[in-house]
Give the backbone structure.
Amino acid sequence: MTTYLEPGLYINGAWRTTGADLPVVDPATEAVIGRVPIAGPVDLDDALAAAASGFEVWRRTPPRDRADLICSAAALLRSRRDEIARSITLEHGKPFTQAQDEVIRGAEFFEWDAGEAMRTYGRVIPSGPGVRHVVHHQPIGPVAAFSPWNFPLSQPARKVAGALASGCSIILKAAEETPAGAVHIVRAFHDAGLPPGVLNLIFGIPADISEHLIASEVIRLVAFTGSTSVGRHLTGLASDHMTPVLMELGGHAPVIVCEDTDVEAAAASSAIRSMRNAGQVCTSPTRFFVHQAVYEQFLDGITRGSAATVVGVGMEPGVEMGPLANDRRLASVAELVADACDAGGVLTTGGHRIGEAGYFYEPTVLADVGDHARIMREEPFGPVAIVNPVDSLDTAIERANAVPFGLAAFGFTNRADYVDRMIDRVEAGNLSINTLEASLPETPFGGMKSSGYGREGGTEGLHHYLSVKNVSHSIPIV
Ligand code: NAD
């Protein structure tokens, strides 16, 4: 039997538990596999004090030393990959091989940002004799970060990497439902020798924690990944204190399939990508707009590919999709699919819960769904692909843009003029052509419109964690 870890709070370099806790549930069986402590006001104040003192140490640590330590922690994550992946599969449900991939991806985020730590260049502004203007980039200060449950390791890794590489301290509130990835990140940094207070980990009641932390003068940046509604709420709290925010929020990614493309290949890769992580990915390809000349062929291909997805318990070999991560998702996906069918949509495969224990849901393809169906505007965040025909690229772009989201978008075409039109007009922070990969450590990732504000990764990834200070220096001319 695989055992699950015992999550704790990590404050000022030491682990602690509290008198109250929440259950951690295996979504494949609905069994309680562990408990996560709830931080109270005293714990939060301790974390704030620790982050304030940790910042004073870390901001004076030379960038190369910061980078070395971050890379040491990343190496520990790589060496502990299988142990971490087992915990993630147990608490989240995703297939073990995908959890393994996630651990490596998290390590890559750390390694990329560690490199960027040494390239936070300022600049010298040309000026006349007797004066120098120099722009410095300095760590913004202690960060309050909130990471979600869909990628228990790589999501918190993004935030911890950005903060620590920049010289900031951080209080991370990771997802209570999936604490393992964040706990393992902290263990790796503890073992790598990170000074106390630089990285602090808490769990508890999300609304209580965000209100307490964001109201504190210690916190200089709020970083959040999750739903647009919660992001909007946290942005409101932060605005009371003029605290800047980094918001990675929801998406509802359009996929434009043009008539000139390799339809079979596009359909096969779309089926795999739509069902990855049971569709619980903010860049998941969800709204397919397919040229009518290839519509039937594409619909047939994505239906076959989705129906062939092997669904099961994540630790079983060969499983390609696990359960949904929690009962909220099960209820929400079922509701959106039922509404789409009521609105005239046609199920070509899936559309039902599997079994009665565990949160399993069939890989689902919906065809011909009218724009008035809720699922055309609301992110399904589940294993659902929605396929609709269009008569032209212009119509496809217009429909792609007809939602408040603008995170990822995808196009399949070999025509340069079509690509050019998509680059010009598709509203998304990340547009991928002939690939469904939306984000890599070296590419900037983030949204337009209600999908958020700011970027993680790429050379832009540290911008939010840094303050710009211009120094004008008058020098006596001798
Ligand atoms: P939710 O809106 O209740 O919570 C989303 C996340 O925000 C969770 O991690 C939760 O712990 C946290 N949260 C909630 N209220 C908070 C508060 N007041 N202060 C601080 N953190 C708070 O929804 P959910 O049921 O957990 O997830 C469903 C929706 O969330 C999905 O439909 C999807 O749109 C979105 N989501 C997006 C991402 C992403 O990667 N962008 C990840 C997870 C969830």
In short: The CA atoms of residues 19 and 37 lie 8 Å apart.
